[in-house]
Input
Amino acid sequence: MEIVFRVKPDIPVKTDSVIVISSNSPLSDNFLGIVPGSKAAQRAPAGSTLNSNQYVGFGDLEAELGDLAPHSARAAGQS
Output
C-alpha cells in the first residue's frame, strides 16, 4: 500500500522516522502516526519514502489471544 501525505514544515520528520497506523482505543478511528527518528538522523526531504510498521488491528490481537487460550489451558493442566 502506498499512502501519500504531507506534514507541516515545522514537524521534524527524520530519515529514520517510522510511519504507523494506530488508534487511541479499540473502538476509535485509525490515524496515521509518525514515530520520531533519532536526533542524529537527517531531516527527510520532501518526497521521501519512510519505513512503516506492520498494522495490527484489534481483531488481529483478539484472534491471537483466542489462539493462545487452548495452549494455555493445556500447559496449565500439564503442570
Remarks:
- The chain has a mean pLDDT of 82.
- The chain has one domain: 18-78.
- Strands lie at 18-23, 30-35, 51-52.
- The two ends are 46 Å apart (CA to CA).
